[in-house]
Amino acid sequence: MISPWDRWYTTSCCLCCHVRTGTIILGIWYMLINAVVLLILLSALNDPVQYHYHLTSSELGTDFDVMDDANICIATAISLLMILICGMATYGAYKQHAAWIIPFFCYQIFDFALNTLVAISVVVYPNTIQDYLQQLPGTFPYKEDLMSTNNVCLVFAVLLFVGCILAFKAYLIACVWNCYRYVSGRGTTEVLVYVTTNDTTVLLPPYEEVVAIPPKEPPPQYVSA
To answer: Which domain covers residue 142, as residue numbers?
Structure first.
């Protein structure tokens, strides 16, 4: 009987790419995104006035600061960690080291779980969408139009959007998992072939014992006339 893991196992992704190629592209893409975020955060730390990450209370309607130095330092550390994890996945897929792919796969599972909790919270507490819209700045585009929309329509739109994101993330998780299985299975096969070859060489008896060589007949005796 075929297990569910083997039923969904494939070595191709995006209809044309190999799972190794897809994992390498995905790792590089995540590294680029986190590198851009890291540059923005470092620039904001160097010149907070220019990037204006401290929004005033009149812009938000509250006394809450969007970003302070401590939060930016934490975000910077997270971006550096993400770059490291994505780099490990890219290197592991390229050099076929399965253990290097595991941290990136765990991050994908964690991110998928967070998005699932967001979808569940929207279903359980639908009024949170209106509360979130009220906290947005007054200059936010289409704020009044969104607040005047029916709450059921907003919940359906948010769930549809989050559902599409979850489906896409699940597909990426499957691609990385198939890459991990491919790399680990390839390494196991190479080890088994190597061990089998050595065992065969060691366990085979010598060639003389396998093929029985008939003894040579003694030469005929010399008979004198």
So the answer is: 17-55+68-194
